[in-house]
Amino acid sequence: MRIVLLWSLVIVGTGLTGLLVWRQLDHRADRIEMDRLSGFQRVNPPRFFGNMVADLPEPARRYFTFAIAEGTPLYTVARLEMEGQFGMGDKANPRYVPMRATQVLAAPYGFVWAMSGGSGAMRMSGSDSGTWTRFWLAGLAPVARFGGDANHTRSAFGRYVAEAIFWTPAAVLPGPNVVWEPVSDSISRMTMRHDGLEQTVDITVAEDGRLIQVRFLRWSDANPEKQHRLQPFGGYLSEFRDFDGFRLPTKVEAGNDFETDAYFPFFIAHVTDISFPR
CA triplet 99, 148, 110: central angle to 5 degrees? Predict the structure, then answer.
């Protein structure tokens, strides 16, 4: 009986050790990818001047001149610290849990969002990126592991291109792979292309240049059929603060089925810090 008990303890201990090592490898992958993305930051970037956007549609021009102060170095990679709520359910039963996260955003090359949330036995942690989605329950049980395919890559690209508009505006200045078009007196449309991917995002801009909202069609399987397809996604932006010459929103509420009756804001974030690694 003692031998059986001993072997049981050995097996359980080996299993727990394996899970802990697996979790640490995920942490290491997060750090490596964050460092890789941070490496896309230019050492001596050009500085912003209003004539760079003088020929853009009026809402886009207002947006850039509000978001970037004259003479600001055009850093395109940002590191964000945030806290807030993450919805684990649906509109009828949101099941919001508190969360904290660190994100490195480097459009058009990728992003990493590493979070922890919940409490007790229901504590969640893990990361989302342009390559993977990996989440753990209580730091020991892998509950979501997917990515590395075309559907995930396309969906992730939509997310971080949209986020680049409001958190790294220098990354969406007009260029060979970024085009701005007029839509109305308050709306402009941006299209970014990279490595065979393309994403269009509409922005709504206030008279003073503040971004009010972003909306786009995102490639997603967040639907009852669990089938990947284009569907509305977007969010509302507020509480702007200055960060090294950039005026950026620190409150973001976003979700699927944006501007429809089914809209569910599963992501509610309050940004506590934004820096530009260099």
Answer: 60
Task: Retrieve residue 219's tokens.
Answer: 């490639």
83: CB partners within 8 A, 6+ apart: 98, 99, 100, 101, 269, 270, 272
DSSP three-state, residue 216: strand
Query: Residue 18: its pLDDT value, please?
Result: 67
**Residue 145 confidence class, pLDDT cut points 50, 70, 90:** confident
Cα-based torsion angle of the residue sequence 168, 173, 179, 182 in order, rounded to the nearest 10 degrees:
90
What's the one-letter identity of residue 51? N
Phi-psi region of 199 (alpha: psi -120 to 50; beta: other; left: phi over 0): beta
Would you say the pTM of this structure is higher than 0.90?
Answer: yes
With b meaning 16 or more CB within 10 Å and e meaning fewer, what string describes 210-219?
A: bbebbbbbbb
Structural domain boundaries in the chain = 2-275
